[in-house]
Amino acid sequence: MIKNILLIILSFLLGSVPFGIILAKTKGIDLRRVGSGNIGATNVLRSIGKWPAVLTLLGDILKGTLAVAAGRYFGVEPLYEGLMGISAILGHNFSLFLGLKGGKGVATSIGVLVIYTPKVAFFTVVLWVMIVFFTKYSSLGAIVSFGLLPINIVLFDYDRTKVLVTVLISLFIVMRHKDNIKRLLKGTERKIGQRA
pLDDT digits over 146-177, tens only? Predict the structure, then answer.
C-alpha cells in the first residue's frame, strides 16, 4: 500500500511539469498571459508556433504514459494503475509548480489511455482528430471524444475498474472545458491554429 501511495504522489509530481510554460519561457513568453491563457499545446500553437506545440503535446502525453507504465513496471493492480494515471492528469490540471493551476488534461489523458487501454486510446484519438478536422475546434474534439470514453470502454475493453477510471477521466475533461462549452454555444470559441 505504501508503494502504491508513493507512486500516486510521484505521478502527481510528474503530471505537474508544465512543458508548455517551459517551452514558452525559452521564447520569452508567459503562456498564461497570451491567447487563452491555457498551458496546453493548442495555446502554444496559437501563441508561439507549430514545433513548440508539437513538443508540448508530446511532453504532456508522455507524463500520462510514464505514470501508468511505472505502475505496470512495479506490478500494481489495474485500479492503482488507473489512479496513477488520474493523479498525473490532476497534476497537469493543478500543477504544484503553477500554484495549483494548470491545463485541461487532454494530452495527458491520452497518454494515460495509451498504456491503460490501447484500443480505446486509438478510438478516442481517431474521434478527436475527425471532429477537429471537420470543425477546427480542438475543444469540441476533446469534449466529444472523452465524453464518449466510458461508452467506448464498455464496447471495446470492458472491465469494471476501467469503467470507473474512465468515467472519472471523462468528468475531469468535460468539467475543465466548461468555459469552452459556453464559448462554443455562443459561437465565440477560437478555432485550432487561429493566432492569439
Answer: 999 999 999 999 999 999 999 999 999 999 99
pTM strictly above 0.70: yes
Residues 6+ apart with CB under 8 A from 20: 31, 39, 40, 41, 43, 44, 56, 60, 103
pLDDT (tens digit per residue) in 70-101 = 999 999 999 999 999 999 999 999 999 999 99
With 0-12 / 13-18 / 19 or more C-beta atoms within 10 angstroms meaning exposed / middle / buried, residue 195 is exposed
* Overall average pLDDT of the 105-116 stretch: 97
| Secondary structure of the chain in HEC code, one letter for each residue | CHHHHHHHHHHHHHHCCCHHHHHHHCCCCCHHHCCCCCCCHHHHHHHCCHHHHHHHHHHHHHHHHHHHHHHHHCCCCHHHHHHHHHHHHHHHHCEHHHCCECCCCHHHHHHHHHHHCHHHHHHHHHHHHHHHHHHCCHHHHHHHHHHCHHHHHHHHCCCHHHHHHHHHHHHHHHHHCHHHHHHHHHCCCCCCCCCC
The pLDDT score that the predictor gives to residue 196 is 52
Domain-by-domain residue ranges, the chain? Answer: 2-186
